[in-house]
Amino acid sequence: MEDSEKIMNTGQQSPKTAAKSKDQMLSGAAWRTGADMIGKILGVIYIIPWYAWMGRFGNEANSLFSMGYNIYALFLLISTVGIPAAIAREVSRYNTLDDPNMAYRLVRQMLGVMLVLGIVASGLMFFLAGPLSALVGGKDSADLIPVMKSLALAVLIFPSMSVIRGYFQGLNQVKAYAMSQLLEQIVRVIWMLAATFAIMKLGSHNWKNAVTQSTLAAFIGMLGSYAVLFYYLQKSGNLNKLINPGPVKSKINALEIFRSTLHTAIPFIVIGSAIQIFKIIDNSTFMNMMPWVTNYSHNELLVLMSYFSANTDKLTMVLLGVALTLGSVSDPLITEHYVQGNRRELATLVGYNFQLYVGFMLPAVIGMSLLTKPIYTIFYQIPSGLQSSLFVFAILQTFLLGLYMIVYPPLTVMDHKRLAMRIFTLTLVIKLVLQVPMILIFHTYGPLLATTVSFLVGVFLFIRKLHELTHFSIKNTVRGIQGATLLTGFMAIVVIIVEIILGFIFGKSPGRIASVFIAAFAGGAGFYTYLWFAAKLGLLEKWFGPRGLSLRRKLHI
């Protein structure tokens, strides 16, 4: 009862305190957004020198790297089980209750729990490296084993590191959180490029060793992240308090929090890892099934897999990151309106979310599809017809995958986790049923076709249930989507015209530098066209409110 009263009292903030809280929130958002953006840019830009230094083995290297990372990403999801968010929530609660020592004890206990979990998860990945490599890489997959083992080291320390990040998030000290993420990416990329250059240009020229060092970079990057976190713990004076917390006013059981978090987080983890699971299915079935119907060697299959998966994933994950950001922004608001019973506001928010998603993603997807040749040339090489068509297919499919990232979270936050799990299960079953025949018939297009059909069914079922629960206006939503579609059409025309004109200047097969100019000028012209029409039609204000008006003024439209 006392806890409740304290929380209620803290909710009655003075204007000065409220303003301070708002400033903290804006500062935190700026740090997180900036660090995330720089991290994503680094995660894309490094591909250009890395792929070039791999020489004629660039495609095989990228496939080997991608296969290891798909398994690794799934292990990271499982090994953290939603604990960082739970830590942030509990730390914030105990500080609100004026019991910071309890927060210190909680973090110390959870560090022990997550250290054990990291050891278990890392051990499984390390000792099962052989079977896992055979699963995703086919029978000739011995080269993947050292890649798996190098990534197991990162799995070892990530769960405990996530506890400390959750602690800073709970204190609303987002700068420490953001800087740890940023330095992790910087150190990782530096190690990857330095090791690859040393091996491929100065040393043995063994591309498989270069890939192993590139995946080991994940562990090296996390060491850098840990150093930043400990620096901020020491600087803030919290390190000694975590080691020796004082007397507490409350009681806590770290294992009980772990169990309750696990129960709540499992649906989010399973449903949210759908794309990762599907990628693993693609790797394993393609590498194991294609030898049945073709005479391709193992290395030739790696090259083909890079065309439809590894090479495209590096770029499409940036678009999926945008979808994930949009979902994370709207989820708390959807939860708030659902709990408060504000059905009208909830319906408006869900419909608006669809419009905002289409407004962001449709022009991005169409623009990248139209600029396939220069984009592919910048990051990899001048694409063949097969590479171009597979890249366009994967880019267009990203719109559907991103839509999935938008539609499943509202059902889980509205207490329909079991239904969401059933829809996910059906989506997975459809994928598994279609996968093998699609590969045997369509070869490299098979995995993409199977994913597209299964996600179409899943997204349709999610949207239908959302409409049933919220009764969002289909008419208004479609009207908003039509506006974004029309603007995308105008943008596409401009991109095509500019690309054709630049094609006369740079020729039919422009190199990397020329492709940069083409992508920049054609993409920039298309982007400005989209913004210009959006401003003229009042869509900027509709999508972004006062910020849209401010953007319109800055563009002098």
UniProtKB/TrEMBL annotation:
Domain of life of the native organism: Bacteria
Primary location class: membrane
Membrane topology: Multi-pass membrane protein
GO cellular component labels: plasma membrane
Compositionally biased tracts (Polar residues): 7-16
Classification via InterPro entries: PG_synth_SpoVB, Poly_Biosynth_Transport, Polysacc_synth
Residues annotated as transmembrane: 29-51, 71-89, 110-130, 150-168, 189-207, 213-233, 346-366, 386-407, 419-439, 445-463, 484-507, 513-533
Renumbered residue ranges of the record's region Disordered: 1-20
Intracellular or extracellular location(s): Cell membrane
Alphabetized UniProt keyword annotations: Cell membrane, Membrane, Transmembrane, Transmembrane helix
PANTHER family registered for this protein in UniProt: LIPID II FLIPPASE MURJ, PST FAMILY PREDICTED COLANIC ACID TRANSPORTER
Protein name: Membrane protein involved in the export of O-antigen teichoic acid lipoteichoic acid
